[in-house]
Amino acid sequence: MTEFTSAFRDDLQRLMRWRRDVRRFRTDPVDEALLRECLDTFLLAPSVGLSEPWRVIRVDSDQARAAALKNYEAANAEALTGYDGDRAALYANLKLSGMRESPVQLAIYCDDATAKGQGLGAATMPEMRRYSVVGAITQFWLTARSFGLGVGWVSILDPDQLNRDLDVPTDWSLVAYLCVGWPEELSDTPELAKVGWEDRDKTLPIQSR
Fold first, then answer.
1. What was the pLDDT predicted at 174?
2. Mind listing the pLDDT tens digit for each residue in 97-123?
3. What is the dihedral of CA 97, 101, 106, 109, to 10 degrees?
């Protein structure tokens, strides 16, 4: 049986505390071997029925990146119309994407039609496949942070348009668009908390039934 020390547990807590959603990147390249080591943690992630439904696309070409950035900018402009007054002004000044600077960009998909796993655990809750992808992303994110890399999750996108632009199979669903690179600065405080958009909960609300 593997036993972990209290020092290890402290380091794990510290790693989770410093895992921030990074949007401000340096443009320095990321070593391919390092990126691959981080991505290989997907292979360690749990998945419903051992289906391993994650699919990773490197968004490398100028054409694909330009399309993704255009997608984000259109979706962000549309999102701004949902706010007014001071909240709209605050939203307009938020930096919600590192897509112009990050050297690595990944589109992470779930293969909803995968035969792997034989459907185990997904018959009544097929969304479990997507949850499995999210779990794998979390492992990748923590590993990247342990090497000093930053990761930013861009969710202000039209997934259908991105699917067309990246020409992915119709039974793949977008789970995350990730920007990866070396952060301009490190912080253990979410940027949205810094600017006053929202506060982090201090305690976990737990209900009994």
1. 98
2. 999 999 999 999 999 999 999 999 999
3. 20
Domains of the chain: 21-186 (3.40.109.10)
> Cα(142)–Cα(192) distance, rounded to whole angstroms?
20
Contacting residues for 158 by C-beta, under 8 A, at least 6 apart: 71, 74, 75
Q: Which amino acid is at 199?
A: D
Phi, psi of 45 (to 5 degrees): -80, 145
> Which residues of the chain carry a pLDDT beneath 50?
none
> What pLDDT shows up at residue 186?
87
- φ, ψ at 13 (rounded to 5°): -60, -40
State the DSSP H helix or E strand holding residue 108, giving kind and residue range, or none if neither.
strand 104-111
- Check: pTM over 0.85? Answer yes or no: yes
Pair of tokens at residue 152: 């930013």
Q: Dig out the tokens for 68 from the structure.
A: 């993704």
Residue at 106: amino acid letter: L
